[in-house]
Specification:
Number of helices: 11
Radius of gyration: 24 Å
Number of strands: 20
Length: about 375
């Protein structure tokens, strides 16, 4: 009889322990708890995957903050970053949020849910089971109500999110401070699907493939970049502000990578911009504060704070996935504020023309292509 009881106890433990392991999310620090959720015990937890360099993540957090205020009893939002704790704290200090902000333990949760693009959201129930995932902007009140009806069991915040000391936070992930005007190194960490540009106070931090880095330097679409002998490896580039290298990033990259550039015309689809009578905004229409991201991009809109026409053309090229070219001789380096739709082309056309005096048209026409090859030794 005793052996039967023992076997039943062991079986019960075997069934219970995996549930605990499934539910636990390890974090290295809880930077702040939610200021709007009603309690620390909920049936649903929304993990908002984000990063300080991610402009669209700001919009996602703002949307989730509104949703959290509307439904403080229904779910608990945790904004989770895998960056250095000090970097996250600085960002939250400059851009306060009422959401809970945690730092992932060694990137475990990012890897567990295969997070490859940001912003991204995952909703867990009390057992740690994924009951919804996708773009935070797509998570609507009716989704929350539907899922809440199906998941009534609750779990305490501290049981689901467990703090573990992250031994890497104070060494490997510590922000590297460049000492030279231009530095680069081969990136051995995770690969990036899109270029990451992080503007610091004194320098810019760029991570990504060489093709994407060159496109950023030229402010053109990646399809306009042709790499000949150079492989498109991942690199980490640092450029100090207010230096010659910062003024001419392309030249600094060519010298550092020992590349030469040639140019040719190719024919294909582009977004053509004609500007005869510009009515650009000045830089006082949008102000997100010092050291804030220059762009805010969501599923519908592109906004820019104190950025040039060349920068906006570059961002539009990424969003529309085609080269953007100007048919005008206007200075594209002057800074302005911008706000426009991009998802619905006719609406974007109308806004560009009515607000900024820019005529936009999709057409097939010749445009510049840039070919990069290793410099030939004499």
């Amino acid at each position: 009889m005793r052996n039967t009881k023992n076997r039943s106890l062991v079986l019960l433990m075997c069934l219970f322990i995996p549930t605990l392991l499934l539910a636990q999310i390890n974090v290295s620090e809880k930077v702040q708890l939610s200021k709007t959720a009603s309690s620390s015990e909920h049936a649903l937890y929304f993990i908002d995957f984000w990063a300080t360099w991610c402009g669209p993540c700001v919009y996602a957090s703002e949307y989730l903050s509104v949703l959290q205020k509307q439904y403080p009893d229904q779910f608990y939002v945790v904004s989770l970053s895998e960056e250095n704790v000090d970097k996250v704290k600085r960002f939250v200090k400059n851009r306060p949020t009422e959401l809970a902000v945690f730092v992932d333990y060694n990137g475990e949760t990012f890897k567990k849910y295969s997070i490859r693009s940001l912003p991204y959201g995952v909703v867990l129930n009390a057992k740690g089971k994924v009951v919804w995932r996708g773009s935070p902007a797509d998570f609507k009140p009716h989704d929350l109500k539907r899922i809440a009806k199906q998941n009534r069991n609750k779990i305490a915040l501290d049981e689901l999110f467990v703090v573990l000391e992250d031994v890497n936070q104070n060494n490997e992930n510590q922000d590297y401070i460049p000492t030279k005007d231009f530095e680069f190194m081969k990136w051995e960490g995770e690969s990036f699907e899109t270029l990451q540009v992080d503007e610091k106070q004194d320098y810019i931090d760029i991570k990504g493939g060489l093709q994407d880095i060159l496109a950023y330097a030229l402010k053109v679409h990646t399809s306009q970049i042709e790499l000949q002998s150079s492989s498109d490896s991942q690199y980490h580039v640092f450029v100090k502000k207010n230096t010659v290298e910062y003024t001419n990033i392309l030249s600094a990259i060519l010298n550092a990578f020992n590349l030469q550039m040639t140019q040719r015309k190719v024919n294909g689809p582009v977004l053509s911009l004609t500007i005869n009578h510009p009515t650009f905004w000045d830089t006082h229409q949008i102000d997100w504060g010092k050291n804030a991201p220059h762009y805010l991009i969501d599923d519908l809109q592109l906004q820019g704070d104190n950025v040039s026409l060349a920068d906006i053309m570059y961002q539009l090229g990424i969003l529309l996935e085609l080269p953007v070219v100007s048919q005008s001789t206007i200075d594209a380096s002057t800074r302005h504020d911008w706000q426009m739709h991009y998802k619905f082309f006719e609406l974007m056309q109308s806004e560009l023309l009515d607000t900024y005096g820019i005529q936009a048209e999709k057409k097939n026409m010749p445009f510049d292509s840039y070919i990069f090859d290793k410099k030939k030794t004499p």
